[in-house]
Amino acid sequence: MGFFSRLVGGSDGGANQAAAAAASAQEQEQQAERISHDIDAAYYRWLTGSARFDAPAEVETAILDQVRALAARPADAAELVPRVPEVIPKLLQSLAEEDVSASELSRLVVQDVVLVAEVIREANSAYYRPMTQVKTVEAAIMMLGQNGLRMLLARVAFRPVIKMQAEGFSKRVAPHVWGQSERCALAASLVAPGLTAGVFEAYLAGLMQNVGLIVAFRLADRLCQNGTIPGSTDFGIELLACGRQMSAGIARHWEFPPEVTDAIAQAGDPDGPYLAQALSLGDRIAKLRLLLDAGIVAEDDALVTEGLDSFQRRCLGKLSHVEG
């Protein structure tokens, strides 16, 4: 009867195929979770470096409790983060208008000397590779295009947010966290189209996702001495996760687009929205780029070969153009 049922496509055969497919999907999900765990562990060890110490369990618990409590009060958490320059929201609003001209955008950009330098530097970067040097703001804007300009503006706005004034370990680690944020934003924007997710929304989520982590490190500084941080892997991975949830809360408080805040909150969930999946992939690629550049992992390491497909490895290569 078993043979006959399989021969005519009976329920047993269908059930066996469904079970095999479910088992394969579960195995792939478990492998992805293992790779993400190993990448986060390696990243936390690299990020904390010589500042790690064997903290008592009560210190780790106290830090995580404070971070979770503050994450539940996003308005209070947002008070610990600097506000963005006033010209940035105006420019982003102008970019939302389809008929805005390069000359009008130039008029807004030249109001901020820092923006002028950033726009021209970006247009001449290795990422865009202009045939001749770009020397004017209007030419730079033409080179970047509206989406490129939106990404640059968001990056300029977030740099002081991540590199906020701080003391202790959080001051030392801020440049590295910013470097990961920039790379995560770019990588997420590169993989977003393949997941039918918004390119700029993915970029914005990538820049935003580490804001809470910097705040978490500031809280840790209050409980640790001499610029140190608990070094346990389990603590580090939990701190990264709690920091991301705080970022999602701050983003909601700042009235970010709901899809961006949801993506940050659900990054790492295989059943999450496509934007969350793009952010998760961008985060993984960015961390691997930093670990490769630091010599922590090699190009043929299993974290790279098993953790990324061929397109994602090409994205990994593109991140080498991002200046630290």
| Number of helical stretches of at least 4 residues | 16
* Alpha carbon gyration radius: 22 Å
Number-wise, the strands total 2
Helix and strand string, N-terminal first?
HHEHHHHHHHHHEHHHHH
Mean pLDDT: 85
Residue stretches low in confidence (pLDDT < 50, at least 5 long) are 1-9
Output the strand order for the largest sheet.
1-2
Shape: globular
Distance between the termini: 67 Å
Structural class: mainly alpha
Number of domains: 2
Q: Note the main sheet.
A: 2 strands, parallel
**Beta-sheet strand percentage?**
under 5%
Query: Helical content, roughly?
Result: over 70%
What does the model show?
The chain is mainly alpha-helical and 324 residues long. It folds into 2 domains: 32-81 and 164-324, no CATH class; 83-163, no CATH class. 70% of the residues lie in helices and 1% in strands. The protein has 16 helices and 2 strands. The protein has helices at residues 2-7, 11-48, 57-71, 74-78, 87-95, 102-109, 113-123, 137-162, 168-191, 199-208, 211-223, 233-253, 258-266, 274-293, 302-305, 310-318, and strands at 52-53, 229-230. A two-stranded parallel ribbon has the order 1-2. Helix 10 (199-208) packs across helix 14, helix 13 packs across helix 14 (274-293) and helix 14 (274-293) packs across helix 16 (310-318). The longest helix is centred in the first third of the chain and has 38 residues, at 11-48. The N and C termini lie far apart (67 Å). 38% of the residues are buried. The model is unreliable at 1-9 (pLDDT under 50).
